Amino acid sequence: MRKERFQRLQEQLEAHGVDGLVLLGSSSVAYATGAAVPAQEGDHAALFRPVAVVVRGDSAPHLFTLYTDGVPADLPEDHLHGPLFPDLDDGMDLFADALSGHFSATARVGIDDQTRAMLRGLQGFDWVDASAVMGAAKVTKTPDEVACIRNAQLINELAMVDALTTLRPGIRQIDLSAIFLRRIFELGASANGIDPIWQVMAPARELGPWTLHGDLAYPTVTTDRFLREGDVIWVDAGITWQGYASDYGRTWITGADPTPNEKQEAQFRRWRTVVDAALDILEPGVSATQLGKAAIEANDGVRPWIEHFYLAHGVGTDSAEMPLIGTDFGERFDDQLIMQPGMVVVFEPVIWEDGAAGYRSEDIVAVTDTGWVKLSGSTYDPYGVSA
Amino acid sequence: MSPVPRDRGVLVGMMGLEDDARVDFGRLRAQRRAKVFSGMQRHDLDALMLGGVGDVRYVTGARQLGRAGVLPFAPVAVAVRQTERVHLLSTWDEGVPPEIGHDDLYGLSWNPVNLAAALAAIPGVRESRRVGTDGLTPMFSGLLSRLVTSGELVDAAPVIQAARRIKTPDEITCLDVAAAIAEAALSALEDALAPGITERDLLGVYYARVAGLGAPIPPSESVCFATPSSGPVRFRYLASDRPIKDGELVVLAPGALYAGYEAGLARTRVAGSPATATATTTATKLAARCARSMDTLLSACRPGNTGADLYRAWESAGNRESPVPLAHGLGLGAEPPLIGLGRGGDAPLEEGMVLSVQSWVTEEGAGGCLERETVRIENTGATILTRYGRL
Predict the structure, then answer these.
(1) Chain A residue nearest residue B143, CA to CA
(2) What is the ipTM of this complex?
(3) Is 0.95 topped by the overall pTM?
């Protein structure tokens, strides 16, 4: 998998006429090197981040890391280096030396993030955004990458069984987080990705948080909020396994008897219909626009996703990456976004009935040569049981 | 209540109390904001555009979704000197403090051109002459210059890093609470530690404890590792699923975040019981060396000293160069200075800074021993915020 990914990066460097990459973002470093890093939050992650340098024509990436126990066994010894601490001026000369050994002063080098210390201390290259090269390499997955996503998803789903079993009035959002987070590590997760979300959906838009666009607020941050009888909660969580993200989305009901009522069950069926309408036409060659249209038609002409989100997004070493379907990139972008074998697509439409809340889940599929294969599980408890 | 309680211990809890006895977050945010705007004045910056998680939290005080890892720079918060307003990338108002009004929010965009348009519409941004950022990407440097402002894009650090370095009393209280959460996690880890348990299970125990306390996002998932009782001993960061053996020295190093503020500590414990009387003696000696080295480091944490004094203290305790940092700043996550691994010799230590200080010593045949504390530098020396018994 690491070899194939590196090969893809090399091909894209060639195709884009770029001499190499300097990568600082966690998901890019993970993609380019396969290096494992302990999950860290915010500025802790930034100060101690590893750096990857990819040189066009080379046989392996260079990795600069503090986390020696996360270095892939097949990384050549002369490609492994001590940490660079790109956020600090102190030691930036070492970073400059490392680059001047690989790139000429006028080289065209892709970069994903520039700290202020780097802007001061790394002069002389023709810096371009790394996103074109990275995006093109990452957008389709190898079979091994798809297997990693499937495994991450399985761990995530199994841990959610324990959380759902515990849900009843009086449980707090953080109690669900505690159960879930403990369980993912027992099951073999490499890391947690985001603070798990257990958002209580107010029945009407105007009873939920105020928003700029008037549409729903989602996702809001977990607190010690109590979950109470009748609360409809939209769950979202993501872990990683071997660098690959899962994406779990389901709707749960809090109550002594969490069986959905007729309206809620109908919302679920409509959600299923919308996803099925997109899946019915999903195959290589189909455009994002066509998928969006199919979903909207199945929802009687109403766009079934939140204005600031999408009908679907990709997943890989990032929890949301290309292909993004139905975003503010706009129609022309979606016209040109064509499904290809190896793309992984997370459908997360939202069915909303103002006054009676709504339903949201996530179905993950990988596009194959002829259609698609599902990577996420097919139970939607407590919904869909009677259907 | 009186402005400063004589027993500060009453502040170290997480529930709101009906007499408002705990951290006054309104005051905390107002003081941070005042430092930022006076810094902008002093350094002649008309606007700040910030993307770093700690910087955004410092200037806005918003509760935003916690996520693991580093994202490339994007302008998530904007401060404008002329209007004294702070603007935030948030499509909704939940988690946003009241001093940031609905008019001050700009929404989530996937398309950077739309984000640039929203930034350009913020009053005072377009006409700014000098705009401080805490990072850039080639894409954003192009977009900001073409679509958002004709101002010069300069470093925000003289304002934001300087403001963050010295902690206010409210910030220290947040760090105290974070320290107490980390200590609770350490107790849970100690209780669970026994031969046969895996590091992965211990990480699960850690998470269950901090999440149950209301702090589900840890500063780091590197919270424990067993050290081998034979062969070379290395510091490890990733949890393995190998069962911990009877008699192994195990590092327990939990941290915690409270309102974004990070504290942490580490202790080393024996799983089960040492194999032989000799092993007991070796482990005791190693623990004593670890503690002695820690005390020497702590005694060097004084205002007026620099990182070089910590390097000297470490050597004077009979240690070779450490493969891990000796110290780094703490606040809203980890922050400069970093002292160790060849960095930070010139970094000045000032009164009011908070550091994570650690002593890591090893011996082949015995294992490794780590002590870590969160300390505040006061005029007379270091005050240790973390409290936990030594081995």
Answers:
(1) A129
(2) 0.97
(3) yes
